[in-house]
Amino acid sequence: MFTILKKGRMYIISGTASESIARDLSKKLKVPLAKTITKRFPDQELYVRIMDDIENEEIIIVQTTYPDPNIIELFLIQNAVVEADADKITTVIPYYGYARQDTMFKKGEAISAKVLAELIGLNSDRVITVDPHKEYILDFFKTEAYSCTAVPSIAKYLKKKNLDMVLAPDKGALNRAKTASEIINCDFDYMEKTRIDGETVEIKPKNLDVENKNVGIIDDIISTGGTMAKSIKELRKQKAKKIFVSCTHGLFADQAIKKLNSSGCDEIISTDTIENDYSKVEIAPAILELIKQ
Ligand code: R5P
Q: Which helix (H) or strand (E) holds 46?
């Protein structure tokens, strides 16, 4: 797809939101991590400085754009890189925040996914992200934009759990469950989900043949945990044995973890696109595969 390694030097620059992925990429690509200084002024404004001489170097910046302060940090890193006269800039965004507002659902709304894409693209030759909420948001970038997926890595983790079935929480996500089921070698199906509003979803009962079976649910995002909690409750009603909930991006907003545990799930799994206590699956190998293609 693209060549990233030229003959000269290259640096990886990590934002504070994505240090473990940047370290993994640095080790695997055998490329140094640039030394940076990031601090806050007393009024909380951010200061960024790149200590290495990166003039004419090829640069990979790694930073998740969630929560909001990490977006500003990314813009400052990109600016520092441009001001230092670096060569080609690749921006890796493990979790692309604001992607869910990808259209004007109601008159007068901002299209957040487009705003971010336009701003990030200003100081980047190409962008890489992971499991964007919808693939078409890549078209918002005015620069080259690519995505990779965490599904095979999550499936490899779930394979150790003796699953009988993988479920998508809604029909639109069925392909994700199908791909995982092919790696795990188990059945797949989907649940009937209707979104009422940003915080409320309804999971309609549907016979799923899960009685006494180990089930994994796979989604792109867990935010409030509402979707997963309702799915778990339905699976418990249908007498599933063990229930594993997994996602690429674990936002775990509000009381999400409490909600998932009290609904009766056996394990919560996410990747490290957003670093948290449930980041059990590393995303760097999937990013690396895309970079090396
Ligand atoms: C929706 O389309 C997404 O794929 C997720 O299902 C959703 O973002 C999960 O949100 P929550 O955890 O708040 O139910």
A: strand 46-50
Instruction: Measure the CA–CA gap between 233 and 39, rounded to whole angstroms.
Output: 44
A 10 A CB-CB count for 49 gives 12
| Residue 195 near residue 201, CB atoms below 8 Å | yes
Ligand 1 atom closest to the CA of 222, numbered from 1: 12
Q: What is the pLDDT of residue 101?
A: 96
pLDDT by residue (tens digit) across 160-171?
Answer: 999 999 999 999
pLDDT tens by residue, 32-41: 999 999 999 9
Top mutation candidate among 66, 175, 223 for ligand 1, by most atoms within 8 Å of CB = 223
Q: Mind listing the pLDDT tens digit for each residue in 241-268?
A: 999 999 999 999 999 999 999 999 999 9
Taken as a whole, the chain contains a residue count of 293
Determine whether the shortest distance from the Cβ of 221 to ligand 1 is under 6 A: yes
Beta pairing, strands 46-50 & 36-40: antiparallel
For position 23, what pLDDT does the model report? 98
Residues 94 and 269: their CA atoms lie apart, in Å, by 16
Distance from the CA of 211 to the center of ligand 1, in angstroms?
Answer: 25
What average pLDDT does range 133-141 have in this prediction?
96
Helix intervals (H) in 30-68? none
Q: Whole-model pTM above 0.90? A: yes
The span from the CA of 107 to the CA of 87, in Å, is: 41
Ligand 1 near 226 CB (within 6 A):
yes
Closest residue by CA, ligand 1 atom 8: 221
- Name the phi and psi angles at 55, rounded to 5: -55, 130
Q: Determine the Cα–Cα distance for residues 4 and 90; give it in Å rounded to an integer.
A: 9
Catalytic residues: 193
Q: Is 250 in the pocket of ligand 1 (CB under 6 A)?
A: no
Q: For residues 135 and 156, give the distance between their C-alpha atoms in angstroms, rounded to a whole number.
A: 23
C-beta neighbour count of 245 within 10 angstroms: 29
